[in-house]
Structure formats: structure tokens, C-alpha cells
Amino acid sequence: MIRKLLLPRRRLLAVAAAGTGLAGLRVEPGAAQSSRIITSHGIAIHGEPAYPADAKNFAYVNPQAPKGGTVRYAARGTFDSFNPFIVKGSIAAGIGQLWERLVEGSGDEAASEYGLLAESLEYPEDRSWIAFTLRGNARWHDGKPVTPEDVVFSFDILKSKGRPVYGLYWADVTRAEIVGPNKVRFAFKGGQNRELPVIIGQLEILPKHYWSSREFDRTTLEVPVGSGPYRVDSFEPGRFIQYRLDPSYWGKDLWLKVGRNNFDLVRYEYYRDGNVIFEAFKAGEVELRQENIARNWVTGYDFPAVKNGQVKRDEIKHEVPTGMQCFAFNTRREMFRDRRVREALGLMFDFEWTRKNLFFDLYKRTRSFFSNSELASSGLPSAEELKLLEPLRTKVPAEVFEKEFVPFVTDGSGSNREGARRALALLKEAGWEVKGGKLTNAKSGQPLSLELLLNDSTFERIALPYKQSLERIGVEMRVRTVDSAQYERRTDDFDFDMIIETFPQSLSPGNEQREYWGTSAATSKGSRNSIGIQDPAIDALIEAVIAAPDRPELLTACHALDRVLLWHHFVVPNWHDDIARVAYWNRFSRPEKTARYSPVALDTWWIDPAKDKALARPGNKG
Fold it and tell me: b/e per residue, 354-377, with b = 16+ CB within 10 A?
């Protein structure tokens, strides 16, 4: 991923893997069926949670995993803030682990959450509200208890002063109120939104007593007070930040924490760019990395430590929705408002040549905003989809009803003549013509010139061939790589022509779709609607996704939304894979069972004493 944004991201979830989940669930009859109150240890968007109330641990952890040792990861750029909840600042890597949520998801279920700070959950069958009863032993790092006042404060301050995503994500939450000595209740607007009771539990809870004497909307390097398993141990901006496992962490014996958070120290070393990070890994200064560069995976791991077994490489098959990575157009720019222009520029990206020459035949072309999942559209719209799409027929591209979306396929030779021919025809229709070797607007006489903004030099090797391809049809594209702080400022302000963007997805899409494609997000600085989409038809389909009462209708709504987004050509799809590639110095072990939708799950790894003893120390790594 290129753009780094700390916000309440949805957990990657999956279908229920074990049991009925009914143990610990109580239904209280009322005057009418819709008023029955359900009390439980967990909640699912559709169906029931898989793990019972008396569960001992998640199925994908090692409950006997030893604790101890230090793990060193890499981070890029620098940081100047420990406040990840506002738009301002460059956020320290790993800082989000300081705060706990009311609930926590599992890595092998589709849409289930279990009480973390909350001991129990109550909600009516119509899901018009939800109440959380806090655990009596939940504590902040300074020893003070986590209170209902903290929960209400967190909701109010994040919606009023936090990143725009909070207001969009919880737009249908009308209020938070204290309804008991240790209980908070959230009320929702009318309408269908089965997801709200689940995602409101993902609210990060902040200490009111800490923030009452501080300005929330300012960057800060004052070590914050949290409630999570780790505390900030030491740091130096631009060089490192280190977290220490809190031996008095209140939740260490909870069943959903068993076998997790196994390192005593978690350290992030900061480096200038991706190439330097890889060299640091080879030298043993970084010990574990997820590899997302095909060239490195195929040709880079030929150093002595790999050959003698000191460094291991794992390929982990997964079922995680991979969402959309893409070249994203900023449609706030006049030149990108015409769909034909966007489609033409997309035709000039030669993925087949890129895959063969730069990716060593790894990766697959992305053809959906919900790639690698059943949420992705295919073929023509089903009868169920047409019920959603027909009322919007005059407001969406005609191809939505007529064709399956398939990105243009080249012959891989690098010439892409057919793509250029089709692109120039589209551009001519849109009022552009080549004059003196430059693509020029027939009315204004202005050339089509754009800047691709990057924050990682690794992507230059992908961008430069694309730049050369565009030059063949007279388009000038400048490739500019900036540091992470400048990149974040410019993208938060939508001050760019094109970026490489990612839109991650879970198996249960919902309210976050407003943040990605919703009209209200298009003008909210710092939102994830980097494309600038303002389209009533897309807004309607987003609401259909959110209101889906069951899994089949959710799939239908996602398929319909996917088609419309694709045929608008808002982006040039990149690539994805269903394999997670991890390289590490051979001092770590991980559970035998892999979570279907959280394949790497580094918080379940541990330092193996025998492997650690056998591994040569840094300086002796051959």
C-alpha cells in the first residue's frame, strides 16, 4: 500500500469456522418480536458469532506461545505525532496498538466481533440501538479505570475533531449516552443498517481525564495514555520508536488475547525508502518483513543468510479480499472529468508487459474493487442486481448493463498499438487532438499534462514505463516522488493529479463505502474519497450495501456498486495476489493454523528459544 492512513479500519473477517456461537447468548422476550433484547458476549452482522462465551482462545493462535524478546520492523520516512485520530501530522508506526476498542474481531469469521473492553452487549432484534457493559477490571496505563464517560467522550470528540472518516463511518449514530454504572448505549437513525451495532464497537476508547487538559486537534509527541497491551518505551523521531509489553496489562488473560502479543519489545526502525529497508533486512537490522516487490522475492533473496537457512521465506495462501490498488484520477481536475479521457489513459497501461518484465510473472490483474472475494462482480448483472440498477439506468454508464468489465489486455510486446489506437479515438471524441506531438484540447489549446505523485521510489520502476507509454499518444506525465510528510499533506488536501491509491475491503463492506465513494466525503479534506466522486447513483448503491439485511443481498449490492465504479473508469486497476509473502530471520515461529482472512497475523508469532539460540547474532550473519 502507498497511502498510509490510521483510522478505525474494518477488521479483515471471514465466514464462521466453528460451533454455533449460541452459548452465552440470551434473548429476553418483550411485548413484540421486534422489541426482544439480545444479550451476548459477541455480535455478527449476519448470523451468529462462531466462538462461544466460554471459548479458551482463537483457533489460529498457539495458547502456549512463549513471551519475550524483541522484534524489529521497518518504517519509512519519519514521524512527528502520537495522535493518529486527526488529519494533522505524520503518525508514528504502531501507535494504534496503545488503545483498545469495545469489541475485537476474529481472523476467521466474516463479520463477528467479541467483547474486549465490553464484557457484554445488548441490542434489540431490529438493531435500533446497542449497549455495552464495560469490564470492571479495564484500566488505563496510569491505573485509572476505563469508564462510560470515556466512551461517550471518545465518540463525541472523534466525530467533532477527528479525521473525517469518523463522522462518515458513524453518520447514522444519533447519540451515545450513559445508561448505568458501567453501561453505555448508542442509538441509531431509522432504516436498515445491520452493520452499525458491530462497527460502533470498533470505536477506539480514549481517556477523558487525559485529554481534558490537552488540545485534541494538535499533533503531539507527548507519550499518550492508552489501555492496550503495549506502551511507548522510547523513541527518536526519524530514527525509531519502541513499544514495551505492559506486564500489568488488564486484558492479558482474556480468551481473545491468549497466544497473542508475545514480544516483550516491538521496535520500528525508520529508513529513507524501500530499497534501504531491504538492505537493512539483509543486514539483520530488520528481522521480519512482508515482501510486496516481485523483483525482490524472485531475485533479491540470494544472499548468504538465505542459503544457509538463517533467513526463511514463507508463501501463505489466503482468502483476504484484496480490494483495489490502482492509478487513481483526481476528478476534481478538469482534464479528468470526462470518462472517455480516463478510459483512454487506462488503455495505455500495459500490464501484460509489466507482469512479464517487472513482476517475473507474479500477480494478477485486478478487475474489481472487491478483488479476491465473492463480492467481486462478474459476467452480466443478475436479475437481483437489475432490481437495483434499473432505476438508475439513465444515471450510470450504459456498459453496466451490456458488458462484463475486463481491463484491456495487450500482447505483452511493449508496443501496445491497439491500445494507442483506441485511446486516440476516445480522446478525439472528447475534444483532444495531437498537435506537434502533444495531446491538446481543441477548444482551449492546452496540452494534457499531469503529475503522478508518489511517496515511495519503489513504484518509479512501474510508473516510468507507463509515462513512456502515455508519451506515445502525446500525454506528458511527470513522476514526482516526495517524502511521506509532504505526500500526506498533499493527499489530505487533494492536491494532486494522479496517485497510486489503495481501497482495502473486508468481507462485509458497509459504512466505510461512504468514505471511499460518497458525495459527502468528496469535499472533506483527509477523507478516503481521493477520486472526488460525487454521484447520486453511486450514493444510492452505497446505501443499498449498508442496508443489506442478509448475505445474499449484500453480495448483490456489492456486485452492482462494483460494476458502476468500474465502468466509470475512475481508476486504472493495478494488480493483486492471493499469496502473502513473508521473509524473516529464523528465530520466529508461528501457529500451525493460519486464519483464513488474517494470514500473517504477526501478533500471533513468537520468538522460539531454540531457534533464537541457534541463530548467529547480528555481526555473525555470514
Answer: bbeeebeebbebbbbbbbbbebbb
pLDDT digits (tens, 9 = 90+) for 180-237: 999 999 999 976 778 889 989 999 999 999 999 999 999 999 999 999 999 999 999 9
CATH superfamily of 324-576: Dipeptide-binding Protein; Domain 3 (3.10.105.10)
CA–CA distance, 551 with 195 (Å, rounded to integer): 12
Euclidean distance between CA atoms 596 and 507, whole angstroms: 11
The pTM for the full model equals 0.81
Q: How far, CA to CA in Å, does 347 sit from each of 124, 266, 408, 455, 462? A: 51, 44, 6, 24, 15
Q: Which three cell numbers stand for residue 409?
A: 489486455
Residues 6+ apart with CB under 8 A from 241: 75, 79, 92, 93, 94, 95, 232, 234, 235, 267, 268
* Residue in the structure block whose three cell numbers are 495476489: 577
Residue 466 C-alpha cell reads as 507507463
Residue with cell 521496535: 267
Give the residue carrying C-alpha cell 462510560: 148
Domain 26-63+97-211 class, CATH top level: alpha beta
Cell (9 digits) for 86: 486527526
- Write out pLDDT tens, residues 420-440: 999 999 999 999 999 999 999
Beta bridge partners of 98: none
State the pLDDT at residue 46. Answer: 81
Measured between alpha carbons, how far is 548 from 193 in angstroms, rounded to an integer?
A: 7
Which helix H or strand E contains 144, and what residues bound it? none
